């Protein structure tokens, strides 16, 4: 459960940072971009599309963890 909370928080942060980086450089810094979005579009706009991002991140993380466990078992790597 704790892992899910950490990964979902990280996904939220990376999604917001990625949203600011996409396309043309509209803002000179992350801080100015965030304040401009908050001022002009509201707090809710920072999280637009976040549910779609979760729907793609959860299966991706599941596949990644499974692949990691399979590779550890194939390579006979002991975990603590």
From TrEMBL:
Solcar repeats lie at residues 1-74. It holds the Pfam family Mito_carr. Transmembrane segments: none annotated. One of its GO terms (cellular component) is membrane. It is a multi-pass membrane protein. InterPro entries: MCP_dom_sf, MCP_transmembrane. Keywords: Membrane, Repeat, Transmembrane, Transport. The keyword Kinase does not apply. It is found in: Membrane. Belongs to the mitochondrial carrier (TC 2.A.29) family. This is ADP,ATP carrier protein.
